[in-house]
Write a structure and sequence with these properties.
Layout lengths: L9 E7 L13 E6 L3 E4 L5 H4 L12 E4 L4 H4 L2 H10 L8 E6 L2 H11 L10 E6 L2 E5 L2 E7 L7 E6 L4 E4 L7 H6 L5 E5 L14 H10 L4 E5 L3 H4 L3 H6 L5 E4 L5 E3 L1
The chain binds zinc ion (2 copies).
Length: 257
């Protein structure tokens, strides 16, 4: 299919551009992803589902939930998702695929114990745990790698027909991640901390800018900045290391490719 005739191969909306720390217009992590073969959310930070109507997104039409890791700012709305499946009044929500880091199955079982009144009966779902994985959803090639933020955290790479999108979740810079990001059209990455901030389980400006430059990423989309990071001139800082296009996000921003 000639995608160029039809415009973008994928569309994203940054539902939550932030972290667990409350900041105006920077809600906890969530990204909406839409392509020909996927209608998905990448992570489910708290408040995700209350914001979807703002963007005209019906949660029951989401067919895939990608979960990078099990920290609350990325997964806390999962219980709300199950409530929506039970009580939204529609019987025919599409079956949902969970594609998440190792531990997601156990996490869902624990939710069932914590919330026994939520029946989960309408929650037809397939759960796939991933680490270093490579598979297809329709025409989309999906690859994952471990990111060393937690023992099981993963990043996702989506190869569409001609465009590539990467979402890192929370991550640590490494040669492995750099190779994974090579020649991406769009890299949506966390940048928790400013330039040269010492961190062992997140990105800072220097690490992210260097990785994006070395990987020859075309557009770098920056999310998940802690409040002290948002006070900096991030674009200026990143330009010291990276020569491509930079988009510092806030909630509601759209990135297409
Ligand atoms: Zn996080
Ligand atoms: Zn985290």
């Amino acid at each position: 299919m000639n995608r160029k005739k039809n415009g973008a191969e994928f569309k994203t909306i940054i539902i939550g551009a932030g972290t667990a720390i409350p900041v105006i217009n920077h809600s906890p992590a969530c990204i909406f992803l839409k392509s020909k073969d996927i209608t998905a959310l990448l992570d489910l930070g708290p408040g995700t589902f209350s914001k979807l109507p703002t963007y005209g997104i019906d949660p029951l039409q989401i067919d895939t939930l990608f979960i990078s890791h099990l920290h609350p700012d990325h997964i806390l709305d999962l219980a709300i998702y199950f409530m929506i499946r039970e009580y939204a009044g529609k019987k025919n929500g599409v079956p949902v695929n969970f594609i998440g880091c190792k531990g997601i199955k156990k996490f869902i079982l624990r939710l069932k114990v914590l919330f026994p009144d939520i029946l989960f009966s309408k929650s037809a779902m397939n759960i796939k745990e991933v680490a270093e994985s490579d598979f297809n959803i329709g025409d989309v090639r999906v690859r994952t790698i471990l990111t060393d933020h937690t023992r099981s955290s993963v990043a996702f790479r989506f190869d569409f027909n001609e465009k590539t999108l990467i979402y890192t979740g929370d991550c640590v810079s490494s040669n492995h991640l750099e190779k994974f990001c090579s020649n991406a059209d769009v890299l949506i990455s966390e940048c928790s901390f400013p330039d040269k901030w010492v961190t062992e389980d997140h990105m800072n400006v220097q690490k992210l800018g260097t990785l994006a430059e070395n990987a020859q990423v075309k557009t770098l989309v920056v999310t998940h900045c802690y409040p002290q990071t948002l006070k900096e001139d991030l674009e200026h800082q990143i330009k010291e290391y990276y020569s491509g296009f930079i988009h510092i996000t806030q909630d509601g921003d759209q990135v297409n490719g």
